[in-house]
């Protein structure tokens, strides 16, 4: 029986595709993480450090939260608290769609500048390879600031996560928010331990 080079190539390609599909795995929604970000708030430079985590209550719902500190040069320092709930849905063997609602509070160390924010978002989690995850996010936020009243706006972002081992990963993300007249850009790095 003669097998041509095209047939061998076709068999090899099918085996590679089957191997990728066989290695597709579920995303974890139970983890702890910490990170930092460089933030630009209407041309004011800021540094953000945080720690937090997520707990899957079952396959359809998780809760998450974080504590952090935002140090805005020449302006103020804020202690931040965030808590939220999310609903992951499987879109394919390699992708999840995550719908979430988060509330965050930023308390200024001086002055009357506290900020409350409620955000509804949708994010995709996709296996780009067997150990690299890609994310795209979009959302709407309602913000109430002591110093400037309330406003709404959009948030968009993207990220990538590399799994060094199955339980430990490092990630990088960028995001931009357009809330009222206040535009915010963020570039961050984080480390995550999942369970």
Automatic annotation (TrEMBL):
InterPro entries associated with the record: Beta-barrel_OMP, OMP/PagP_B-barrel
Any coiled-coil regions, as ranges: none
Keyword terms, alphabetized: Signal
Signal peptide positions on this chain: 1-24
Keyword Membrane: no
Domain of life: Bacteria
Segments forming domain Outer membrane protein beta-barrel: 13-195
Annotated protein name in UniProt: Outer membrane protein beta-barrel domain-containing protein
């Amino acid at each position: 029986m003669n097998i041509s080079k095209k047939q061998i190539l076709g068999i090899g390609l099918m085996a590679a595709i089957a191997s990728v599909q066989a290695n597709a795995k579920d995303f974890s929604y139970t983890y702890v993480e910490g990170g930092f970000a460089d933030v630009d708030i209407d041309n004011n430079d800021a540094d953000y450090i945080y720690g937090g985590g997520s707990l899957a209550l079952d396959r359809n719902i998780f809760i998450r939260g974080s504590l952090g500190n935002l140090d805005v040069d020449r302006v103020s320092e804020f202690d931040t608290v965030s808590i939220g709930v999310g609903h992951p849905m499987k879109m394919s063997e390699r992708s999840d769609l995550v719908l979430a609602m988060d509330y965050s509070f930023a308390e200024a160390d001086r002055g009357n500048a506290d900020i409350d924010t409620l955000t509804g978002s949708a994010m995709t989690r996709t296996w780009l390879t067997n150990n690299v995850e890609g994310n795209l996010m979009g959302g709407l936020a309602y913000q109430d600031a002591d110093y400037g009243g309330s406003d709404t706006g959009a948030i968009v972002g993207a990220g990538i996560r590399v799994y060094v081992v199955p339980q430990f990963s490092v990630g990088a993300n960028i995001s931009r928010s357009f809330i009222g007249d206040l535009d915010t850009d963020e570039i961050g790095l984080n480390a995550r331990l999942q369970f």
